[in-house]
């Protein structure tokens, strides 16, 4: 028993991350990103999650690349004012300058999807300039076959023709620190994570993978934890108070994994 | 006590500034010129990025020399993440490059540590920090002993002299340096400004520590 406790204490923790999808100034909810519905002020939600013990926050401007703009620096500025935990910012980042603006405004990491797929070397340039720990590859994937997923850009609107495993390996090669992996099929459904997707990508890379999309009930946690993901990003379930951060962390802990603030 | 945050283009200054302010540091200034250092009592050296580039910047701007001189004259310094690693004699990220040599030792890649099971690098996680009780920092900082802080790093700095190692976190059988330093020099591998309330608590403990020393 003592040996197990010691081994458990040395393991890394599962990170619970609050994901806030933004359109303009508003937090939004989307099912498969059709029909975006405003939920409210993202900062109120973020502050609440921070107070309740969330480990990290992700802000993504979901229409930025569509409108050829990037997430506003002043949004990040406001977002990080009273939140002393790591913040990831993404949405339409297309250049080192875009990324630097967000870092200067308070973001700890920048997340890229569309621009990276169009030009993978941009990731390598960002890594060189900002360090791998500051660059997250945001991968949005949709199932295209029994064990195949296709990468989508433009927040899940544009198919790229690229296989998710090939892309995951490529971004790792470019030097990114982490992957934020979103299942387009599961996002907004509350029906559970895409276990196959999570498992396949975790197996293909040696960098942390954060899974996103589909969380709706505490019973969804055990299966996704078993895939070896390093963190879980939750959006709707938190925004609509389906589960509390405390409940989610307790459930992760009960499943035999470590979380910040909870110990077995 | 006049406190400054050194801006050499490699830090998340805003978060640190806000956190320090929340923790009770009044009279905060941003320093981007080495010639201003002598006006301060305590400086923070935050850092996020690549060691070799930061080293180049410190040399090129003369800030490196100015910091060393500041310390020699009794100033206090807190280094965070890359800032802490720059206290070393040299680093091995991309190319071998010089640090500030405030503490003997080299910065190395975590991949080389004898982990029982290889963790994912960069290490991105909240780890409980354990103090060495005989280290002088223990008296003033033990309130945060065992608490979880946010780490994000691929490189580590283990001082050559054990006396400079104040606290570690344990991962897969290895004790990874978390806090280094002695006297007026404190280096934090983790980000107190990103570690929630416990991070703010540490910053306020540091405020009291330096008030007593400087």
Protein described:
The complex is a heterodimer of chains A (264) and B (214). Chain A is α/β, with parallel strands linked by helices and 264 residues long. In chain A, 35% of the residues lie in helices and 28% in strands. Chain A is built from 11 helices and 12 strands. Chain A has helices spanning 2-10, 42-52, 73-79, 96-105, 114-118, 121-130, 164-174, 195-204, 221-225, 236-239, 245-254, and strands at residues 15-23, 26-31, 34-40, 56-61, 87-90, 109-112, 135-145, 148-153, 158-163, 178-183, 209-212, 231-234. Chain A has an 8-stranded parallel barrel with strand order 1-4-5-6-7-10-11-12, surrounded by 6 helices. In chain A, strand 5 (87-90), helix 4 (96-105) and strand 6 form a beta-alpha-beta unit. The longest helix of chain A is centred in the N-terminal third of the chain and has 11 residues, at 42-52. Chain A is globular and about 40 Å long. The N and C termini of chain A lie close together (12 Å). In chain A, 53% of the residues are buried. The model of chain A has no long low-confidence stretch (mean pLDDT 88). In chain B, strand 1, helix 1 (13-22) and strand 2 form a beta-alpha-beta unit. The mean pLDDT of chain B is 94. With 214 residues, chain B is an alpha/beta fold. Chain B starts with a strand and ends with a helix. In chain B, the strands form 3 sheets. Chain B has an 8-stranded mixed sheet with strand order 2-1-3-4-14-13-12-9. In chain B, strands 6-5-7-11 form a 4-stranded mixed sheet, with helices on one face. Chain B is built from 6 helices and 14 strands. Chain B is globular, with a radius of gyration of 16 Å. Chains A and B meet through helix 4 and helix 6 of A and helix 1, strand 8, strand 10 and helix 6 of B.
């Amino acid at each position: 028993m003592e040996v197990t406790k010691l081994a458990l204490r040395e393991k890394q923790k599962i990170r619970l991350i609050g994901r806030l999808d933004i359109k303009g100034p508003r937090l939004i909810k989307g099912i498969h990103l059709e029909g975006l519905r405003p939920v409210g002020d993202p900062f109120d939600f973020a502050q609440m999650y921070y107070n309740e013990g969330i480990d990290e926050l992700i802000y993504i401007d979901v229409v930025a690349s569509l409108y050829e703009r990037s997430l506003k620096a002043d949004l990040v500025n406001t977002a990080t004012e009273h939140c002393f935990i790591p913040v990831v910012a993404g949405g339409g980042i297309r250049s080192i300058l875009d990324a630097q603006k967000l870092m200067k405004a308070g973001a700890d990491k920048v997340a890229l999807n569309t621009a990276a797929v169009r030009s993978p070397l941009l990731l390598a340039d960002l890594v060189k300039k900002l360090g791998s720990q500051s660059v997250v590859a945001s991968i949005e994937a949709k199932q295209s076959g029994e064990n195949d997923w296709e990468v989508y850009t433009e927040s899940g609107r544009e198919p790229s023709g690229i296989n998710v495993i090939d892309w995951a390996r490529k971004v790792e090669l470019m030097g990114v620190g982490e992957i934020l992996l979103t299942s387009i099929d599961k996002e907004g459904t509350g029906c559970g994570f895409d276990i196959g997707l999570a498992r396949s990508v975790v197996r293909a890379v040696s960098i942390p993978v954060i899974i996103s999309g589909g969380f709706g009930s505490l019973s969804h946690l055990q299966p996704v934890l078993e895939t070896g993901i390093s963190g879980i990003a939750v959006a709707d379930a938190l925004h609509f108070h389906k589960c509390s951060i405390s409940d989610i962390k307790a459930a992760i802990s009960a499943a035999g994994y470590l979380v910040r603030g909870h110990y077995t | 006590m006049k406190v400054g945050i050194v801006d050499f283009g490699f830090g998340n200054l805003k978060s640190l500034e806000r956190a320090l302010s929340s923790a009770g540091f009044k009279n905060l200034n941003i320093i981007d010129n080495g010639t201003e250092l002598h006006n301060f009592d305590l400086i923070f050296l935050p850092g996020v990025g690549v060691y070799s580039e930061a080293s180049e910047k410190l040399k090129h701007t003369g800030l490196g020399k100015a910091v060393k001189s500041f310390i020699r004259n009794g100033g206090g310094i807190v280094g965070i993440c890359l800032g802490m690693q720059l206290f070393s004699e040299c680093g091995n990220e991309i190319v071998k490059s010089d640090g500030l040599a405030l503490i003997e030792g080299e910065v190395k890649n975590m991949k080389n540590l004898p982990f029982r099971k290889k963790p994912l690098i960069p290490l991105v996680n909240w780890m409980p920090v354990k103090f060495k009780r005989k280290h002088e920092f223990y008296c003033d900082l033990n309130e945060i002993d065992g608490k979880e802080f946010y780490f994000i790093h691929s490189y580590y700095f283990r001082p050559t002299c054990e006396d400079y190692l104040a606290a570690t976190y344990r991962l897969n059988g290895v004790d990874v340096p978390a806090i280094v330093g002695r006297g007026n020099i404190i280096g934090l591998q983790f980000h107190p400004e990103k570690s929630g309330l416990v991070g703010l608590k540490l910053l306020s403990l540091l405020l009291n520590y330096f008030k007593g020393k400087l």
